[in-house]
Write the structure tokens for this entry.
Amino acid sequence: MGLFNKSPKKKLNDDSSKFGVNLVAELYPTSSVSEQFRTVMTNISFANINGDLKSIMVTSSDPSEGKSTFSANLAVTYAKQGRNVVLVDADMRRPTVHKSFNISNQKGLSTILSGNSTIEDTIKYTSIDNLNVITSGPIPPNASALLGNRKIVDIINKFNKPNDLVIVDVPPVNTMTDASIVSTTVDGTIFVLPQGVTEKKRAKMAVEQLKKVNANILGAVMNMSKDNMTNDYYYYYSK
């Protein structure tokens, strides 16, 4: 089976938008999937020899392709290796982070960007050492406009110490302008491309869209499973 799907698109399981994602890297740290997340982390590090990669955006071409599962587990993996990680849920239309970590979403990115809360009183601790999160906050009517005010830069700059890393989960490129907006504020972007699910034309469209705004595309992660997290395999392809 090839990486791209030539037939009518088959979606991945969409339970994450209802229940949150499966934190395999936390629940099953010795599993093969957790090891693959560590391998991906190592490969990203090899592409960051100068150590200047302090913020990463994770996206996909279209919805239900596993980018929220990947971003959350990547955040857990980095945190378990001693990095101080902040996971930001910038998918304000289909948020998952508050469900995945079972925390309040009364305040979040939307309230920070709208000026109704500060970063300090919005960021939340998790049960995982070194990992804090900024949830999406209440779903706003104007998510793209909020992101366009560039206040997300303040969040990224807030966590700019040598051991800090900000991972931003954004909506799929082909559905909203949000990913293009955020890509100009982060150090690098990673695509999640499920094997046999992503359509080549749609993936190419997404990449071209980000190139138009000069996004730094670090590479792609291929998620080989279309059924459930326990059978996933992740491979990282650098640009």
Summary: The beta strands are 55-60, 84-89, 124-125, 131-134, 164-169, 188-194, 217-223, 234-238. The first strand starts at residue 55 and ends at 60. The mean pLDDT is 86.
